[in-house]
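Researcher: Before we compare anything, I want clean individual predictions. No alignment, no superposition, just each chain on its own. First chain goes here; please echo the sequence and then give the structure tokens.
Model: Echoing the first chain and its structure:
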Amino acid sequence: MKTNYLKACKVTFITLFLMGFCSLAQSQQENFGCIDPVISDTSGPGAICEGETATLTATHNGDGVNWFDAPSGGNLVGSGSPFVTNPLTTTTSFWAEAFNGGSGTVQTGGARVAPTNTTASAVVAVTSPWGLAFDASEDFTINSVDVYLASSDPGDVVVQLKDSGLNILEQVTIAAPAGNSTTPVQFTLNLDFFVPAGTDYNLVAESSPVMVREFSSGHPGFPYPIGTSGSVFGGTINDNDTNPNVYYFFYNWSFTPGVVCTSARVEEAVTVSPMPAIPVGDSVQQFSSGETLADLDVTGENLMWYSDAGGTISIPDTTPLVDGTTYYVSQTVGGCESDLLAITVELILGVDDASLENLAYYPNPVTSLLTISNSEAIKSIKVMNMLGQVIIYDAFDSNTVSLDLSILNSGFYLMDVFTERGKKTVEILKN
């Protein structure tokens, strides 16, 4: 009985100790202002082709997620979910890390604490705004700044926070009381401006009453630290014209550093399949009248034909070949499509084709009427789309004919011109 009792006491003690430890850890965590998030799942395409991007997602309970190129440390390569990578050329792993943001302890005395002279001015409209340029080494909030009022009249101070692109992130208008030119009146501007980690921020007054600012003869010189959260590196006037000689207006920054809690990193691998070689074939090939793309000599798997060098307009291999035209072909291996091989085709003239040796057609491109002429009489004309479907067919018996193409949509078409002894296929463009 005694042994069991001692064991029970021991278990109770350990339990209470762990509960106290966990309570202390939770209390410390709450003091830091955030709770560690968790990533429950990541997903991606698994495999892509060389040169493609991959879209990655992460399921988590944090404020956001960042993506890194290493399981610890490494470089930040993107953020958010979904996250689209840069084009990849080799199999690559990415690691997702969720984060929660919180607030640290309020600090005062940031930047320059107080002026040592009474030199003062209001913001001049033609060179507005005036203020300070600074960097943020971490997220933080500017709670307030002090100004020293030298005007005998009250007035509004319009304060703006701008990013490196001079976009206004925050703005507030604060009514300031009257001051004194001999003994400027210290006045606190409550701002509550959140500053993400970054560079080249401006804290500026767009307009103001007369307030103290110091020339280089009145202050030791830049930079001035904002605790460990950043640094004021110069005065600024007229939107980002840095003035290293003047400290404008804003003293004794009260600020709250940001605190970030992060999850364990989770890997998401992307397998990259190499780009297939382009198909093999001569860049110039000859053909006989009536032959199609399928008759060209090209070696490759799963060939795909295009009428444009960008590979945006696909055409079937049943497309009739047109003299002097360049066609483009790719091959697809393992689900990945190669670059394009360009093939220009030349018609081999037979005895019958000689009857169309002097064929002319104009204008090309055409808007409505197309004129076709030939040394031998034209017996019929057939117009087809790039899929080989007949759109127009007319019979004639004349050396010169006119064809009304106004009903056609804009684009490329094939036209067969027939005489008694032969046929010729040409390409026309309808505007």
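Researcher: Okay. Second chain, same rules.
Model: Second chain and its structure:
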Amino acid sequence: MDTENPSAPERPQSRMPGKNHPHRRPRSGVVHDNTRHTERFTVIGNHLAQHPELSGLAIGLGAHIQSLPAGAPVDIKTLAARFPEGATRIAAALRELETHGYLRRTRERTPDGRIVTRTVSCNHPGRHGTQAATTAPEPPTRRPAPADRPRRKALPAVPQPAHPSPALLRTATDLLAGLRREDPRLLLSTADTEHLSPGVVAWLERDLTPTAVRHALTRDLPPEDLHRPAALLAHRLTTHLPPPPPFRAPAPPPVVRHPIRSCDGCDRGIRAAEPGLCRDCRSDPLEAA
């Protein structure tokens, strides 16, 4: 009863529902030629690879970042050196990943006082899996009470104008309100605009045009997100303040040349502000002197 018959025909296997016949190919579309990976591979969810709202660059960067080992640099400069798209497009793609939960970026201060950006890659947004073995679990943090919560950091001081000028202040306010047309990241609140306007007036007092001030404030902006655009503008208004214009001596008053009139006594032509007598025809010798 326990003797196997090697010549007996194999039992036919039923076809699994949804499983394509091995010799049947689709009439159109992609055909997969797959090989099973046994090393150097990364599992990427279809929710990322086929995301309906992410751009192709964002999907590619998300897959690339998930394939990197812990501790690998993923800042904009490093990614721009790795890929040909450039810093501006890469920064936009990273913002897409951050918006949809595939990246979390926070700023932290190191023991030596430097500000660094910590990036966390999430392979499945909304699902909190176990942390990698190389990452130590962080202790739970106490939610600060309302009195302990940090207040908004004050903006740096800006230069003050030498003389009050309502006209220049209106020009400065309009200039700051229009910066968002140059770069949407420079959208300022009313409080930020009131704080920065005197600094812009100080620049306008130094014989600069509004166009020159706008160019100085918006050129060479960093490609990453601007967390505090008003603080950046306050820093530029202070550190890049141009020197006062060179001293110019006041111009001498113009020479007054009266029109030529005829003397009422001798009809001789004289220059005078009003009609009258010439020096010789004046009867009073003191007046003629």
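Researcher: What stands out in the second chain?
Model: The two ends are 158 Å apart (CA to CA). Additionally, DSSP finds ten helices and four strands in the chain.
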